[in-house]
Amino acid sequence: MNLKKYKSYAAAILCMIMVLIPVMGSQAASVTITLTTKNERLKVGEEIIVNLKLSSQEKVGDFQGYVTYNADILEFVSELDFIAGGEGLVKITDTNVAVGDSSRKYTLKFIAKKLGTSEIALKDLTDIFEFESGETMSVSSNQLTIQVEAKEAASNNAAVKSLKINPGKLEPEFNKDEYNYTTKVDNNTKQLIVSAETEDEKATVSITGNEALKEGNNTIKIVVKSEAGNEKVYTITAYREEDFKENGENTKEETQETEEESNDTKSINEMTASIDSLKVYADDKETYIQNGFRYHIIEVAEDVTIPDGYERTTLQLNGIAVTVYTLKNNLESDFLLIYAENIEGEKGFYQYDRKEETIQRFIKSKSNNTVVMDSDLIKSEEYKSRITTMGIVTAILGAGCMILSVALLRVYLGKKDKQ
Questions:
Q1: What is the pLDDT of residues 273-291, one digit of tens each?
Q2: Which residues have CB under 8 Å from 37's CB, separation 6+?
Q3: Is 76 exposed, middle or buried (0-12, 13-18, 19+ CB in 10 A)?
Q4: Sheet with 204-208, side-by-side order of all strands
Q5: Share of the chain above pLDDT 90, in %
Q6: CA 106 to chain centre
Q7: Within a domain: residue 100?
Q8: Is residue 255 part of a domain?
Q9: With contact defined as beta carbons under 8 Å apart, do 109 and 48 qualify?
């Protein structure tokens, strides 16, 4: 009796196993979709990259899926032909896959356009097919919560932390809360170098009135504009001394004569300025400096080391703001550094002589920062020296020949008189 009972139990269990085997064998292969991003918090205007990754133990074939997002908060930017979207829905159509794989990744790009929160998730209408069998795979996925915050307020700091001039001295001593200063320069000074360093690196500086100083008072304005747009104006009243002659002041007649001579020679000076003097000009927001050769003034790259003992500042040349490098704590030097590119595409530092208005290549020596004349310049100087020497020798020989000719003529005339 017990034996029959055990047989009945065994038969029932066997039947259950036979029923469950087909069900277990027909269970669909699964795939996991993972949405990830480096930063779920961003500010208005910033960009966010969302990675969508497929992972499965089986090879994945064709994939067609939909990703939802809040179109009021985020804007989708499409970069691939098989990914398109807008108005809160992104469609990914990756079909006719030639080779299946167990892992695949797609990249979605969004831009934050408004304050708020956006969910990024996979929509239910998503079809993924197993590569070999073509059967639909079951899908599981996560979702992201993106928080868009306000942009950082633009800085309204338009203060100057350092203001220096050369030549001369500021009166009173510089204070960022003092906006008016005076200075006095001699009659030989026609240009005042002004160096203004701002507290906020995003603030911009413009300097006017520091060139072509006239005799008497000159108003120099240093306008600092903050990132937010507000301005502060620092004013320097520079007094240039008058030109006095040994016997007293210039007379009215002498002044008129000087003005007439100046007017007569003005056109000549303008024609020769591009050859004999340094010229700075801007073209399509690019700045160039020219004195025989043209150099393109550029910003120093991150991998370029600024020579020891120099610091960055701004100098007005021909009314154009130029980035230069001056000796630290020594604005008295007539020599400044400019980083530029020559016509052959070679980049480097050049030394500008503000007194002579010349520019030449800057070469750093082993001991300190000095300028070494290159071979072409040395040859040029040697050639000029030789020409000068030859001219002197020629003049001496010519004078000697003339004296000898006069002596011979006198001897000849003396003999003729005796006859």
A1: 333 457 787 776 788 888 7
A2: 48, 49, 50, 51, 144, 146
A3: buried
A4: 180-185, 231-240, 216-225, 204-208
A5: 37
A6: 34
A7: yes
A8: no
A9: yes
